[in-house]
Amino acid sequence: MLIEADARRFITEAIETDKDLSSIEQKEKARGRVVVGTPEYNEKRAKLITILGKINSVANPEGMGRDDLGAEVLIAAEGIFRRISPTQSKAVRNLAERIKKAFNDFKNLLRKYDQNIEVVDPQLKNNIELVEILVEFENSWSQGLTYFLDSKKCNQLIHFSQVIEATAEKHK
């Protein structure tokens, strides 16, 4: 039993961090504030993403098991999602949306696991739903790391995707 609890420690830690994050969100919304701007919220979210990276490093048999994908990727994706309209670049917005969705899917899975932690196989790689989320996390966030954090590459990606999408509209 102790061995199983130790194997699930990252999941348990992520669940507790997500609860803290939810508490901050509820508290700030009750005050009528925008939650994204608070330092405490950003700190907890960064901690949750760090734990997500740790889980990815031990449980993702299909990917490289990266644990270097930080909160800056999510922050950049959120910024791009707000700045870029679907008419400007569907591809860039789609990548930003995939990054956000991977994080939200992970949070939703944690809430499911919180209801019954015993459903989590101690061999984390045996949890199919978790592995699927981790694969999408690693794929989308790796692309975000490459294209969203380098402003020159990001601008080039936006420009070329606009050209390609406009050309595709003209020449179906």
Task: Explain what you see.
The protein is mostly helical and 172 residues long. The chain has one domain. 74% of the residues lie in helices and 0% in strands. It has seven helices and no strands. It has helices spanning 2-7, 9-30, 39-59, 71-83, 90-115, 128-147, 151-170. α5 (90-115) packs antiparallel against α6. It is globular. The N and C termini lie far apart (60 Å). 28% of the residues are buried.
List keywords for this structure.
172 residues, globular, 74% helix, mainly alpha
Quickly describe the structure.
With 172 residues, the chain is mainly alpha-helical. The chain has helices at 2-7, 9-30, 39-59, 71-83, 90-115, 128-147, 151-170.
The sequence of SSEs as H and E is HHHHHHH
SS-based class: mainly alpha
Helix coverage percent of residues?
A: over 70%
Overall mean confidence score, pLDDT = 88
CA radius of gyration is: 18 Å
Number of domains: 1
Percentage of residues in DSSP E strands: under 5%
Major beta sheet summary: none
Contiguous helical run count: 7
Rough outline: globular
Write the layout of secondary structure elements.
Blueprint: H1 2-7, H2 9-30, H3 39-59, H4 71-83, H5 90-115, H6 128-147, H7 151-170
Helix pairs in contact: 2-3, 2-5, 3-6, 4-5, 5-6
